[in-house]
Amino acid sequence: MMWQDLVFMVGSTLSIFFLAPTLRDASARVPLGTSLPSMAIGMVYGTTFLTLGMTFSALGAYAAGSMWSLIATFRSPQRPVHRLARATGLDLFVRDVGRWIDRRRGDRRLAEQYAPVEGPSATSAD
Predict the structure, then answer these.
(1) Cβ atoms within 10 A of the Cβ of 40, count?
(2) Cα(64)–Cα(20) distance, rounded to whole angstroms?
(3) Cα–chain-centroid distance for residue 21?
(4) What angle, rounded to 10 degrees, do the helices at 32-51 and 89-104 form?
(5) What is the pLDDT of residue 125?
(6) Nearby residues of 71 by Cβ (< 8 Å), 6 or more positions away
(7) What stretches of 25-118 show up as alpha helix (H) in DSSP?
């Protein structure tokens, strides 16, 4: 075993332990815009490590990607889009990405993009 294989495996194992509380917390809500790309990266890394002969790293990356897929499945926010329909899966992800892009467009400064919608802006003078 190469020492690098061990280092990557340990890192993936730690990420699984750090993600476990999110999966156990029934009130946790992780946007699909976070969990789906993280899941895809874990799976791509796993495949890459496997092709390099780094079996333990591949297993760790696949496990981390699987953990992200569980988080996407069980901890994504379920907001009603219409009173008769709910956005799920890919539809919710696409809508989240659209909202994220819309918030970054415009003439607002970066700090104002993250100010709460209700109440006074953190940059306004009283």
Answers:
(1) 13
(2) 10
(3) 15
(4) 110
(5) 52
(6) 19, 22, 23, 30, 35
(7) 32-51, 55-74, 89-104, 110-113
The b/e string for 54-77 (b: 16+ C-beta within 10 A; e otherwise) is: bebbbbbbbbbbebbbebbeebbe
Pairing of strands 85-86, 80-82: antiparallel
Rounded to the nearest angstrom, the gap between the alpha carbon of residue 58 and the centroid of all alpha carbons in its chain is 20
Residue among 93, 98, 65 at smallest CA distance from 77: 93
Determine contact, residues 32/79, Cβ cutoff 8 Å.
no
Tell me if 71 sits within 8 A of 23, measured CB to CB: yes
Distances in whole angstroms, Cα of residue 10 to Cα of each of 36, 74, 91, 124: 22, 25, 35, 47
Lowest mean pLDDT: which of 37-41, 47-51, 113-117?
113-117
Report which of 22, 80, 75, 70 is spatially closest to residue 42, judged by C-alpha positions: 70
